[in-house]
Amino acid sequence: MKTLEQIEQMLPGLSRAEMAQLAQKVVQALGESVPGIESTPDVCGGEPCIVRTRIPVWILVQSKRLGMSEADILRSYPNLRAEDLANAWAYERLHREEIERQIAENEKA
Question: Distance between CA atoms of 73 and 67, rounded to whole angstroms?
Answer without folding.
Answer: 10
